Amino acid sequence: MLCENGVSSMSIEFPNDLELVSEYKVYKSYQVSIYESAEQSAFFYVIEPLYDLEPTEQEQFDNIAEVIEKDLGDSLSKNIEARFQFTFSMTKKITERYLTARKLPNEWLFPLIFSILNLETLGPLLLDSQLNEIYLDTPSHPIYVDHQTFGRCKTAIYLSSEEIDGFLTKLSLDSDQSVSFVSPSLKTELKTDYFHVRVTIDVPPLAVDGIHLDLRKLHEKYFDIFELLENNTLNSHILAFLILILRLQASLTIVGVPASGKTTLQNALLQLLPSYWRVVSIEDVVESPKNLPFHFLRLKVSPFEDERQAYTKQSEAVKLLHRTPDYLNLGEISTPDHAKALFQALSSGIPSIQTIHGASFYALDARLEHVFGIPIALLSLGSPHIFVEIGIMWKKSAKIRKVLRVGELVPLLSDAKQPTVSIQPLFELDDDMHTYKVVKDPFSSYVLKTLSSYHFLNNTRIKELLESIEHEIEQLKQSSSKNLSSLLQQRLDNLFWNLT
Fold first, then answer.
1. Which element (helix H / strand E) includes 331?
2. The pTM is what?
3. What integer pLDDT is reported at residue 14 of this predicted model?
4. Hey, what domains does the chain have and what are their CATH numbers?
């Protein structure tokens, strides 16, 4: 059974010592089984249709798919734009109608949809909300996945050349981007009511061994800060400090290696900004939550892979003064254009939150200056700046994400014409990997001294605020209420409202 997993184009040998460790259903159409192999120190992911078709049913299934494709074609011809979201929605609507009229099993719904859209292999994986990322390194190797609970899992799933070509065509049409010898990469999003993924594709000659796919799920349900506290990504004291400096309008950059949870932490912190602020977000792939509890303008610019570069972060950052933001979300800083947008915003006096790839915040100096062409000292021209470094530890094949240290950007006294700065740690994860040691008293830090003077707060009042924030967090951690982040935001609003 394991070698024929129901959605594979080919098969792969599994080890003999497999032990079933978990099972669950995906939209009543598929069964997922997770197996562990001690011999290979690996988890194996298997997804199969719940309904096995008899030969006569298979013929009926194929006939219905053919009829729906014709109906779908007629519907799409009336919609010139016919984006994938519309196509998926129309296919689902027509398929549901046919299943109801013929009293056929509901389990056929998604297999029919994916058969019609030529997504029989990828579709079920896109539908599984417990997958974080789907990888294909080369068509000659099977897909592997990152699971929310079991981490990196092997599969027996291969993609045929027809499926790959069809998927690439869909993405090119949907994004108005093309891949070619001259432009061998594509980065876009694929969104329906059931899944939202960021897709990165590389093709030859860039991808030496054939087409490469990376599909990262952008979950509609974002982690809130209390889930990160429960996961021990950070503790209440560190969180209280970050909330304090954010609400006093310091800038914050989250640094970490790929998939370390930078954007997850960024989005969780965004949910705690004041409800009366106007926040502007400029992203090339929109990863910020849609319905954040404040006045929120989201702008989407051209990704780096799009040759036309019709809209860039830097060009939109220039316009910020006319959009009057209280705070800015710049998403990920990954190109020189993005770095210039950050400098443009900070030098204009607009505080911002962003993420950047890096082994540590100590390596940022060289990365900003030599890769992006922006001396890190220029970041000191804006509001005080805090850096959060987040890292990965492995537990079996699962990633454990932890805030490793928090530091501040400190201007240094110098006779040189150019300003000089240093990133100095305030908190660091202790050797026990649970508690944080204070490297420097935060109340004597440059960031809090500067913010205190901006907001006419003395040291006593700053200490009271920090203690009050941490008290509110600890209280809500014991609460059984839902929407804890929303409750915390309301309490923070009251706390800071009374402050003014």
1. strand 327-333
2. 0.72
3. 79
4. 225-499 (3.40.50.300)
